């Protein structure tokens, strides 16, 4: 009723037509376009995450239709990921802790065996007897000399030339030794003792184990000596055993004495 004119005003029904939308304003019923082939893995991962979050949100807020639609989208995106990237989704590969420990034990055993084999090869290759000095000049034999008997051989070389253990053994004595000035006595496995005299400096001590070729002293001219040299003796069967020709003793063990 129009109060001013006393007439009823025509009634108009205004209807705004718009697409049916979801609670968040997204048109429903619209067909989604398939993602183009070859989309990058980063974009696919973003789509998967977005779909999963939407499904969770709609499910919590009580919109079953929207949740179902989001779940369908997620499934489609997962399929698309597998197709576009040529991947087959599998569970994560793994082994048990016991299997890993067993493998570690195998590796440790293999390394130990390899190290043992290498050590054995090195031991087999090293010489067991050597000349007690390198580059020396043979100056005196195991023979009668100056009205007495010379029970060793003399090997002349420059002062402080390194002197070596002739074979593997243990140092029995090391130090002052009368006419030898300074001397070292080494007991070998077969019971023989080698003697080294007139050195300038001793580098080993009693009880020390030495290998053939290991430096035991520096050559000198101490004691009853007419010049720098090594006086080398061999006592067969022990320190007080019979003194034998060092040249023959070394030759029997594969060592040649130059100039002898």
TrEMBL record:
<dbReference type="Pfam" id="PF01551">
    <property type="entry name" value="Peptidase_M23"/>
</dbReference>
<keyword id="KW-1133">Transmembrane helix</keyword>
<feature type="region of interest" description="Disordered">
    <location>
        <begin position="1"/>
        <end position="38"/>
    </location>
</feature>
<dbReference type="InterPro" id="IPR050570">
    <property type="entry name" value="Cell_wall_metabolism_enzyme"/>
</dbReference>
<feature type="compositionally biased region" description="Basic residues">
    <location>
        <begin position="20"/>
        <end position="33"/>
    </location>
</feature>
<dbReference type="InterPro" id="IPR011055">
    <property type="entry name" value="Dup_hybrid_motif"/>
</dbReference>
<dbReference type="InterPro" id="IPR016047">
    <property type="entry name" value="M23ase_b-sheet_dom"/>
</dbReference>
<keyword id="KW-0472">Membrane</keyword>
<keyword id="KW-0812">Transmembrane</keyword>
<feature type="domain" description="M23ase beta-sheet core">
    <location>
        <begin position="149"/>
        <end position="246"/>
    </location>
</feature>
<feature type="transmembrane region" description="Helical">
    <location>
        <begin position="41"/>
        <end position="60"/>
    </location>
</feature>
<protein>
    <recommendedName>
        <fullName>M23ase beta-sheet core domain-containing protein</fullName>
    </recommendedName>
</protein>
